C-alpha cells in the first residue's frame, strides 16, 4: 500500500527567555526518513545569531539539536520542505518488537494488562484489536485543550475521560502494549490541524510493519510528517532543558501541503515516512 | 420491603503475637443495629485472661474494641447470636448524603468522574446506574484470592481487573460517588460464604434509603450481618495497630443462619440491619 | 493553657453561575464551637432572594448549608462576628483517636509509614515528632499559589516540593498518622492572612488534646476561627456540587480581629475553638 | 582509572512451564562489552533440545534471545566465562545524555524534581550529588526480600522505605535525572552476592563517562559483569513473555570470580565493562 501527497512546507518558531544559561534539547526537525529537501534552523540570541550544531541522531532517525544558550531572549526558527512521494511502511526490527511492548513513563502497560484484556482481549487478531482500541479511545475521550499536565500518563487520561493529542496517543499505546502489540509514540507536523500546533499520533506493529493511527482524528494522517519517534512523550518533547532554565513565551507552528490529499476514506492502514 | 431470615451464629477467632505492646483496635463485633441478643468477647493473653473494655462507638453503630495488649501470644475470640427478624431500610441523613459522596482513601471518586460519566452517565436514574455498576463490576473483575495489597484502591482494581471482596466493593463505591450517588463500605459476617472469612459489600443511597449490593456475588445478601460501616476499608479493618506491633497468626471466621433463606430471586433491593 | 484574642469579623462572598440546577453544599459558616454571636447567610438568585435552610451538622460542629439553586447568576454572602474569649483545648474522644489515625483521600498515611519512620521515628515523643514534622514541612515546601490540583494529595506535594496551604496541612497530617499520631484537617478564617482567602491548618492529638499547627506560617494561629473539621480537604471544601453544575466566578474572603494579638512567641501549643 | 579482576564464571538456569506457547524474550547473556570468551545457551523442551537463535542486539550491547517455545516443561541454561582484564569507563554519547535524563516507567523523575532539588540541589557538582544520593538511599532504604511488586517504581520505594536491588537502583536513577544527571539501570552478574541471584545497579554520567554505583552495597562492584543496560527494569527483565504464558518454577544463578578482588576501598568510581 502506498500513499502519495503533495509538497509540504513545515515551520516552527519558538520564542523564549533563557533565565539560567545552559543546554537545551530541541526536537522540531523532521525525521531523517521524512526526506526533507530543504531545511534550515536559525537561532537569534540577545547578541545576534547563534550557529546551530549538527543534530544528535536518536533511534528511528529522530534528530535532536542540543543548543547551548546564553541568558536573555532567544528566537528559534525551523523551516523545511519535502515532496510527499509514495511511502512504504517501515519494517520493524526484532529489537523494536521487544522495546515497544515494554511499559514506559506515560504508557504503564504493565498496570493495564487486566483492563486491556477485559476490553479487547477477545478480538481475534492484532489489526482488529488496534482498530477497536482506536475507535474506543476516539469515542470515550473528549478533546479538551489544556486539560492535562506534562506529568499525566495514560491512567490519568483513562480516568479523566479527556485530554489532548498526546493523551489520546498514550492511552492507545498503553492498551496495545497491554495486549503484547508493539506500539510507539510519534510527534508530527500535521497539515490541516486546527488550531495548528505540534501533533502526536501512534504507530502499532501489525504483521511485521508499523502503521500509524490517530484516535484524536484531528488531521488527515496521509500528509503528516514525522518528527520524533519513541516510547511516549518523554522521548519526543519539542523542548527539554538539560540544566538550563527557560520561560517559553510563544510557540508558532505551521504546516501545509499542496495539493492536500486525504486517503482516510480508502484505508485506515497508513504508514508514515 | 422487608426481609426475614433465621437465627444467626457469628464467630471470629484471631490468634496473634504482640511483638511491641500497646493499643490495638478490634472491629469484629456486630453493629449496634444488628440487634444481637447474646455477645461475648474473650481475650487470652500470655498470663491469663484479659478483661475487655466496652467498645468505642463510631458512626452508624460501629463498635470498636480498643485493647491494650502485653507482649506475647494473644487469642481473641468473639461470639454472638441474633434473630433475623424483618429489617427496614435505614433512612439516610443529610450528613450521610454529603459524607458519602466525598472521595476517600480507597475510593478516589474525584479521579474517576470522567470514566464514571462515560460508562454510566447516560442511564436515567440512580437505581439503574447502581444496577449497571454492579453488573459491570461483577462481570469485569475476576475474584483472585490474595491478588491485592492493603494499600490498593479502586483505581488499582479497575486496572488489574481482579481483586477480592473489598476491591469489588471499592470499585462500585467509587463509580457511584463519581456519579454523585452516596455510597459506603460495609464489613459483614456472611453466612454461606465459601471459603468462610470476613466479607465486604457496599450500600448505595437510592430515594432516601440505603440499599446493599455485592458485586462479588459470593454469598446471599439477605442473611449478612453488619459489622463496621464507613467510607472504605480504612474504616472497617478488623484489626488495626495504634502504636503496638503484632504478627497475625490465624484468623478464623464462622457465620451460619438457620433456616437459610435467599431472597435474591425476588429483588435486588436488600437492606442491611 | 488559654488564649484570648479580640473581636473578629468574618465575611465570605461567592459569586457563581449555576449551569445545571440542583443541590450544592456550602461550608463557609464558622463551626458551632467558634461561638459566633451574630451570623447571617444571604443568597441572591436570578429572580430575587433565596431563603437559606438551617445547616446540616457534621462531626465536630461543622455546619454545611445544602442549597437548592436555580439556573443563572447566584451570589452567596456569609457574615459573622464573635468575641475571642479564652479557649480551652478540645478533648479528643476514643472515636477521634481511631478515625484520625486512619489514612484518607489526600493523606494516604498507609503508603508513607516507611518514610515517616525514617524521617521522624527516632524522636522520643508525639510532641517532638509533630514539632519536627511542622519544621521540616515548613522548610521543605515552597508556597506557590496555584501550584496544585484539587486531586493532588500529600504524596504529590512531597514530590513536587511546593503547594498551597491545603498541601502543607495534608503533608503534615500524613506524616503524623504514619507515626500513629491522630491528626486532622481544619479550614479556617485567618485574620492577617495575605492575600486574604480561606485558609487550612491541621490539628494533632497530643496527650489527649487537639493542638493546632500551621506549617505554612502565613497567619497568626491565635486568631483563626474554625470552619470545617475533617480527615482532609475532601471534608472541608467550601463548595461542592451534589448533582448541580456551576461556574465559580469570584470568591472574596475577609477576616479581621481587633485588637490583633499574637501569642506565637509564647508557645506553639495553640488550641482552636 | 582501570580495574582488573580475575576470571569469572557465570551461570543462569531457569526452569519453567509454558502454559500458552509463543515467544519469550530472554535477557541473561552477558553484554557484548563484557567480552566473554566462552558462552553457551541450551534449551531443553518437553520433546528434546530446542536450538537457540542468535540474539537480537539492543542498545549498549544488550543481547536478547527471542525464543519460540512449545507448551510444557522447559529448562533454559546459560553459561559463560570471561577474563576480567582492565576496563576503561565507557564514554557516553550525546544521544545517551538526552535519553538517560528522561523520565521512564519506574524512574518518573519528572515527578521528583522538587524533592531532588530540595534534598541534593545545593551540592556543588554532579559527582558530589551522585555520592550523596547513593549514601542517602543506602541509609534510608532497608533491603527486604520480596518487599516490592514488579509494577512498583521509585516513588513506591521512597515511600515504603524498603525494597530489593532494583528498587535501590530505581530510586538513585530517579534522583539523578531529577537533577539533570544522566543515569541508567544495569542488570549484572554479581560474584559475591548472597543469596546469589541476578543483581541490579545503576550508572551515572559524570564528566562525560559512565560510572557504576550500587546503593544496596551487597556485592563488590569491581567484579560485576554487565547483562542488560537500559532506562530501568522494564529494559532489563531477564524474562518477558511476548504473547506466550508461562509459570516460572525456579531461577538459579551462579557467578564466581577467581581471584576475587575488591577495589571499593580505593575509589567509588568504578566503570563496568
From TrEMBL, chains A, B, C, D:
Stretches assigned to the Transglutaminase-like domain: 157-217
Pfam families: Transglut_core
Entry-linked InterPro entries: Papain-like_cys_pep_sf, Transglutaminase-like
SUPFAM superfamilies: Cysteine proteinases
Protein name, UniProt field: Transglutaminase superfamily protein
Amino acid at each position: 500500500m502506498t500513499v502519495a501527497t503533495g509538497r509540504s512546507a513545515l515551520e516552527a518558531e519558538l520564542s523564549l527567555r533563557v533565565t539560567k544559561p545552559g543546554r537545551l534539547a530541541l526536537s522540531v526537525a523532521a525525521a531523517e526518513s521524512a526526506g526533507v529537501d530543504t531545511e534550515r534552523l536559525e537561532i537569534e540570541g540577545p547578541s545576534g545569531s547563534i550557529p546551530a550544531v549538527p543534530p544528535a541522531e536518536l533511534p528511528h532517525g529522530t534528530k535532536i539539536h542540543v543548543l547551548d544558550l546564553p541568558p536573555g531572549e532567544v528566537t528559534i526558527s525551523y523551516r523545511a520542505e519535502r515532496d510527499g512521494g509514495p511511502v512504504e511502511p517501515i519494517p520493524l526490527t526484532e529489537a523494536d518488537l521487544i522495546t515497544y511492548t515494554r511499559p514506559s513513563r506515560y504508557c504503564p502497560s504493565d498496570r493495564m494488562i487486566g483492563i486491556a484484556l477485559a476490553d479487547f482481549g477477545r478480538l481475534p487478531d492484532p489489526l482488529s484489536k488496534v482498530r477497536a482500541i482506536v475507535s474506543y479511545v476516539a469515542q470515550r475521550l473528549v478533546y479538551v485543550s489544556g486539560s492535562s499536565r506534562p506529568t499525566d500518563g495514560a491512567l490519568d487520561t483513562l480516568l479523566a475521560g479527556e485530554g489532548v493529542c498526546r493523551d489520546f496517543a498514550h492511552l492507545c499505546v498503553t492498551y496495545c502494549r497491554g495486549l503484547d502489540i508493539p506500539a510507539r509514540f510519534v510527534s508530527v507536523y500535521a497539515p490541516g490541524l486546527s488550531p495548528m500546533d505540534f501533533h502526536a499520533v501512534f504507530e502499532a506493529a501489525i504483521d511485521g510493519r508499523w502503521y500509524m493511527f490517530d484516535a484524536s482524528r484531528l488531521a488527515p494522517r496521509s500528509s503528516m510528517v514525522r518528527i520524533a519517534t519513541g516510547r511516549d512523550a518523554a522521548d519526543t518533547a519539542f523542548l527539554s532543558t538539560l540544566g538550563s532554565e527557560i520561560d517559553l513565551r510563544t510557540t508558532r507552528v505551521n504546516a501545509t501541503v499542496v495539493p492536500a490529499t486525504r486517503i482516510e476514506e480508502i484505508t485506515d492502514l497508513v504508514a508514515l515516512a
